[in-house]
Amino acid sequence: MSYIDKSCSEFAEILAAGTPVPGGGSAAALAGAVGTALGNMVGSLTAGKKKYAHVEDHMYALMEKTEELRVQLLELVDKDAEAFAPLAKAYGMPKDTPEQREEKRRVMEECLKLACRAPLEIMEKCGEAIELHKEFAAKGNSLAVSDAGVGAVICRAALKGASLNVYVNTKLMHNRELADEYDRRADMLIEKYSDMAEDIFEEVREEIRR
Fold it and tell me: Which residue in 86, 75, 87, 68 sits closest to 29, CA to CA?
């Protein structure tokens, strides 16, 4: 099933249904796509305006990058759900015998690794989007600066939300070296981009309240 083809109300209903997928990772990816799209909104309201002719080429370059990220994040809505589905099934595997327990452990380990990759990718894409929002907020149409701020805040929430899907899976992994590597990547992305997004928010707030 492709969740990105659903309407907003249908997707919200599916999330609320209590089924294993889609879950928080897919929701984070969708939020990231929405936040990223606001960057293109700012760019579209800037490019072509005589007042902003000096940044028009820059806006088009930013919009090209933002559009690519938006499409990738939408794809990650389904990708995250697809990655988690096998893990949800693995939880229900029998464990009555030593052989069954070992097989379940093996399958779980593979599924946990797979389930970490999509949210890490969501985090990376949201971080890249936040960097672009910094440019949109600084150089875009002043009438749309609030949209750049909203986009940055939404991408920050998506990034932090996706991190929880990393941590909840690494906690259960037996391969602690790989788990620690995933955790470090998530920690680094939060450290790098969370404050950046908050700075964008504060700068935008100050700008529109002058």
Answer: 75
